[in-house]
Specification:
Its main location: cytoplasm. By secondary structure, the protein is an alpha/beta fold. The protein contains 10 helices and 12 strands. Strand 2 (64-67), helix 3 and strand 3 form a beta-alpha-beta unit. The protein is globular. The termini are far apart.
Amino acid sequence: MSVTSPDSVFIARSEGISAEGVRDQYADGRAAQVWEIFIGDKNSRTDNYKKFLINLLKSKNCKRILDVACGTGVDSIMLLEEGFEVVSVDASDKMLKYALKERWNRRKEPAFDNWIIEEANWLTLYNDIKELIGKGFDAVICLGNSFAHLMDSSPEQCEHKKAIRSFEKCLRPGGMLLIDHRNYDNILETGSTPAKSLYYNTSHTADIKTSVLFYCGKPAMVTMDYLIEANNLTSEFRLSYYPHELKRFTEILKEIFGSKAKHQLFGDFKNLNEIKNPAFYIHLIEKNLN
């Protein structure tokens, strides 16, 4: 584990501001291009993840889905093909261009012709897409460790709370938020990150060098330097994440949705009693009916 002082020169991400005003870690297009190669199309999704997501949404009678971290569109495409109605948003126009291209290529298919894709800011999401919400979505999904891209320097994590409130406002009564994060508790303890993602079947060799930035004695940022080899090319890029610790993240969800909200926690797409030290935690929390 590398420990970096805030007084040091520390390049956290590629520079660039998205149109919505949120710092876009994919703004230079470098990570977005490599990420598309790395994750591939929807067929690269692991079977256990696909079954987990589809079965969960169907078991909750979800039909209208808001994908708030659609990226290149992998999850949204998978959901469209499974018969869900999907609205997809992301803060990165460089990532969205791949989703827009897929929509155009498959525009003769009704589901794709009706697919709504927008650039949006999590902090103002409700107002940004107000005309699309109607009576509310059955589910909001924020998966693939995406939420951790949102940094927050305030002690109370005000921006994280504001974003989750935006997600909650987009849900119908009884609707659910499905949101995940890496097991940062374990990353902070061991100083390492698994190179292979549970979300993707990939034959590409990947290595992740993990660094932790501490501020006032507390972990403030985890930076991962990715090494990806694909098509005889070697690519490197850096992405930074807020190290969400499980207990605190759960407390924030309960604060926003209410202490009586139904909350389920999964590890690597399994019940927690089936796995000891998951790479990812997946939270499901339901909006109260009243």
